[in-house]
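Appendix B, Record 12. Input sequence as logged:
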Amino acid sequence: MEIMAGQATRTEALARLRAFLPRVVDYSESRNFDLGPDGHKAVSQLSPYVRHRLLLEPEIVASLPENAKSSGVLKFKQEVYWRTYWKGWLEQRPAVWRDYVNWLDVESGVQSESMQAILDYRTGIECFDYWTRELIETGYLHNHARMWYASIWIFTLKLSWQSGADLFMRHLLDGDAASNTLSWRWVAGLQTRGKHYLARADNIERFTQGRFNPVGQLDETAEPLSETSEYPRHPLAAPETLDSSKKYLLLLSEDDCLAEYSEIGAAPVVGVTALTPDTVRFSEKVQNFKKASVSDAMNRACKHYKCEMKNSWVDSAESLAQCFTTSGADAVLSLKAPVGSTRDQFQALFSKTQIPGVEVTRAWDREHWPKASAGYFKFKKSLGL
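Logged structural output:
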C-alpha cells in the first residue's frame, strides 16, 4: 500500500505497528520475497515512520512478542538494530558523508544519457525499469529489490554509486543518510572492502516468484569497486546537558518527530518551531511526507509543553533569529540530528548566528552508537543478538 503524506502521523505509525505484529513470527521465512507494491505483506513497511522517529526503536523492540523460538521475531529485531548500527558507524566517520555530499555538489548536475534512460524507464532491463517506476511513484522499494537495483546500477549499467544513492535519497520516504549511503557502499564493495553484492537473474526470478527473470542481461561476474580514501574512526562527542534554569525554544526537525517522548523531559519549553526540510535534495512526495511528519510533531509538542508555535518553520538564520527573539527563550533546544542533511542544515544556521543551542541525545543513541565501532556482527554480538 502506498504511504501518503496525510498518513505521516504518530497515530498512523502506531496503527501500522499494531497491524504488523501478528505477522512478525513469519518474518524470517518470507521477508526476502518481493511480490510487488500490493504484495509487501511479509515486511513491516514501518521504515518511513522509524526514519522520522514517529516510531521509536525501543518501543518497537519492546512491542515484539516474547517468543524466543520464533526466528521471525529475532530477525526483525536484528533489522531494527541495523538502522541504529549504520547511524552509529557513520557518526564515528562523518567524512564518508562529507565526501558523498561533495561529490554530489560537483557531479549531480551532469545528466548522462544512461541516467535519462533510467528516468524514462527504458534501460531494457524490465525489472530495473519496473523498480524505478515503483520507487518514484510510491516512495518505497522492498529491501531485496534495493539490493538488486543498486547492484545493477553499479555493475551492469556502470554508473557511480553516489548517483544511485542520490536517486534513492530523493525518492525514498525512508531515505536515511546513514542507511542509504552505507548500503550503497556495501553493495559496491567499499563498505566491507572487497566484498560486494551481485544481482543474479536466478535469485531475482526466485524471490519475485517468476515476475522477473533478467537472464543474460546482468553482469554477474563484475569485480568490487575500490577507493583510496581512508576513514578512520573518531570518538563521539560527549552528550550535552540541559540547564533547567533556562527557558528553551524547541526546534524540531524531520529526524526526530517525537519530542514529548524524549530526554527533554520537563524542560521549560516556551515555544515550538521546526526546521524546513531540505527542498533541494528531495522529491515533492518526500518533502510532503517530511513536512506532514514535522507538522504532526509540532502540534503534539505544543500540546505537551503547553506553549505556542512560533512562526511554524525556519529556513534561514534570519527566520531563526526572529523566532528566537519573539519566543523569549534563553537558548534553542533540539533533539540531536545524526550525520546527514539535517545536521548540515543545523550547522549552517547556527554558524550564522550567535544564538546558544543545546542538542539532547536520546538514551538509545547514547547507548548504541559507541558500539558501532566495527562490523555489524560485532555490534550484534555486543547486544546478545
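The first strand starts at residue 248 and ends at 252.
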